[in-house]
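stage 2 :: seqdesign
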C-alpha cells in the first residue's frame, strides 16, 4: 500500500530541517573552514615531524638510544621552558597573526635539515637545534589556536569546533607516521622533511585567508608578565577539576613520551623493520583515535562524563602493557593492537576535557589557561623523553617500554581520587556529552591537549 498524503507531507517536512541543520554546521563557517584546513596540514606536519626526526637520528646519524631521546626531548622542551610566558604573550597579541608566523617559522626551522644534508654538514647538534626552534614555535601555535577558536566561532559552538579539530588531529596521527615512513623510504630521512615543510607552508596560507576580525586585545597600562602568568597558574591550580585533569594528562604524557622514541628504536634497530613498516605500525595504533572520537559520545552517554574520563585513561594504560611484547612475528601486531587501544582511550578522554577547559575559562585568561595546562601536561614530555633515553642506554629500549607501560596504568588516579569519579555531567559543560556528535565518520580524536 502507498503512503498517505499526510505521510508524504510529514516526510517532506523533515527533509528541509535536516538540510538546515547540516548547513548550520561549522563546516560552512568560512573562517572556521579555513582554520580547519590549515590546522589539518599543520597537524599532519607536526605528527610526521615527531616520527621522522627520531627515525632520522637513529638511521642516518647512527644515534644511540640516549641521543635519540635527546632529539625527542628537543622537539618538546619548549613546552617546559616557554609554556607559561607564552600564554601571557599570546593574550597580548592577535592570535591569527601568531598562527601564521608560527607556521612559517616552523617551515624555516625544518628546512635547515635537508639543506644541511645536501651540503654534507648535517650533525646531531644541528638536528637538535632545528628541533628546538620547531618546538618553540609549536608552543605559540598550539596556545594561539586554542585561544583563537572561541573568538572565531563563539563559546556556544566550542564543542562542535573542538570535535572537528580533534577529528583532524586523529587523522593526522593516523596518516602522519605512514606518510612520514613512505617519504623516508622514497626520499631518505633528511629529504623527507621537505614534505613536513610543505605542510606548514600550506597551513600558513589557509589561515592567512581568514577574514574574520582579529582585534588586538586592549592594552593594560599596568600589565606585568609575572603577574599575568600568576593569574593563569592561580586559575588552574585553584580549580579542583582542572588540577585533576592536569595531573592525569601530565602523568600519562610523561610515560608516553618516554616510550615513543624507544619504540621507534626497538622497531628499527631491534626488529629490523623498514621505515614504511614502522609507519604502518603507528598508523594501526593511531586508527584508535578515529574510533575513539566516533564512539566518544556514546560512551559518555552510557557512563557519564566524569566516569568516562577516568575509565578511558585506565583502559589506555592497560592496553599499553601489550606494546612491549613486540617481536618479529605475530606479536608485532599484538603490540599494534595495544597501541590502538591506548590511542582509543586517549581520544575518548581528550574529547571530554578540552571543551570543558575552554568553556570554563574567562576570555581574557584563555591564553594563560591554555598555556598553563600545556606547561603542566606537555612540560612532562621532554622530561619523559630524556629519562627514557637515559634508561635505555643502560637497560635497553624494551625495558623502557615496560616501565612506561606500568606508569601509564597509574595515570588515571588523579581523576579517580577527585569528584570526577562519579560525575555524569561535568559542571559548565552541558553540551560536552555531544563533543563527538558532529565528528565525521572517518576522522578521530586527539591525544592529551
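stage 2 :: out
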Amino acid at each position: 500500500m502507498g503512503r498517505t498524503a499526510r505521510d508524504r507531507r510529514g516526510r517532506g517536512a523533515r527533509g528541509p530541517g535536516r538540510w538546515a541543520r547540516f548547513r548550520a554546521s561549522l563546516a560552512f563557517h568560512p573562517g572556521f573552514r579555513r582554520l580547519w584546513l590549515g590546522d589539518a596540514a599543520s597537524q599532519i606536519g607536526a605528527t610526521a615531524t615527531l616520527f621522522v626526526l627520531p627515525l632520522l637520528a637513529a638511521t642516518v646519524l647512527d644515534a644511540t638510544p640516549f641521543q635519540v631521546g635527546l632529539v625527542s626531548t628537543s622537539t618538546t622542551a619548549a613546552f617546559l621552558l616557554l609554556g607559561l610566558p607564552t600564554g601571557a604573550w599570546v593574550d597580548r597579541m592577535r592570535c591569527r597573526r601568531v598562527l601564521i608566523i608560527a607556521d612559517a617559522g616552523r617551515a624555516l626551522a625544518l628546512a635547515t635539515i635537508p639543506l644541511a644534508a645536501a651540503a654534507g654538514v648535517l650533525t646531531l647538534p644541528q638536528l637538535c637545534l632545528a628541533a628546538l626552534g620547531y618546538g618553540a614555535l609549536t608552543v605559540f601555535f598550539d596556545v594561539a589556536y586554542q585561544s583563537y577558536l572561541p573568538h572565531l566561532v563563539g563559546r556556544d559552538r566550542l564543542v562542535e569546533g573542538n570535535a572537528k579539530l580533534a577529528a583532524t588531529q586523529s587523522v593526522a596521527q593516523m596518516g602522519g607516521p605512514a606518510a612520514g615512513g613512505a617519504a623516508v623510504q622514497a626520499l631518505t630521512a633528511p629529504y623527507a622533511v621537505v614534505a613536513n615543510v610543505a605542510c606548514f607552508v600550506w597551513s600558513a596560507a589557509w589561515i592567512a585567508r581568514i577574514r574574520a576580525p582579529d582585534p588586538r586585545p586592549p592594552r593594560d597600562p599596568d600589565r606585568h608578565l609575572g603577574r599575568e602568568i600568576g593569574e593563569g597558574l592561580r586559575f588552574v591550580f585553584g580549580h579542583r577539576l582542572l588540577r585533576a585533569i592536569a595531573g592525569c594528562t601530565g602523568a600519562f604524557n610523561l610515560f608516553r613520551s618516554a616510550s615513543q622514541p624507544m619504540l621507534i628504536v626497538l622497531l628499527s634497530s631491534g626488529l629490523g623493520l623498514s621505515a614504511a613498516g614502522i609507519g604502518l605500525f603507528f598508523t594501526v595504533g593511531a586508527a584508535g583515535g578515529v574510533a575513539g572520537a566516533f564512539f566518544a559520545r556514546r560512551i559518555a552517554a552510557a557512563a557519564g562524563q566524569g566516569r568516562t574520563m577516568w575509565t578511558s585513561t585506565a583502559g589506555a594504560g592497560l592496553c599499553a602493557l601489550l606494546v612491549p611484547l613486540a617481536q618479529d612475528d605475530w606479536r608485532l601486531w599484538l603490540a599494534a593492537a595495544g597501541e590502538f587501544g591506548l590511542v582509543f582511550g586517549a581520544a575518548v578522554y581528550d574529547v571530554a576535557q578540552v571543551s570543558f577547559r575552554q568553556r570554563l575559562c574567562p576570555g581574557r585568561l584563555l591564553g594563560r589557561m591554555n598555556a598553563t595546562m600545556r606547561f603542566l601536561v606537555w612540560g612532562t614530555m621532554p622530561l619523559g623523553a630524556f629519562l627514557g633515553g637515559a634508561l635505555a642506554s643502560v637497560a635497553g629500549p624494551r625495558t623502557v617500554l615496560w616501565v612506561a607501560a606500568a606508569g601509564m596504568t597509574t595515570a588515571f588516579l588523579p581523576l579517580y581520587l577527585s569528584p570526577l569519579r562519579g560525575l555524569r555531567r561535568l559542571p559548565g559543560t552541558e553540551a560536552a556529552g555531544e563533543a563527538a556528535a558532529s565528528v565525521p565518520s572517518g576522522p578521530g580524536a586527539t591525544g592529551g591537549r
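stage 3 :: structure notes
- The longest helix spans residues 240-270.
- The radius of gyration is 22 Å.
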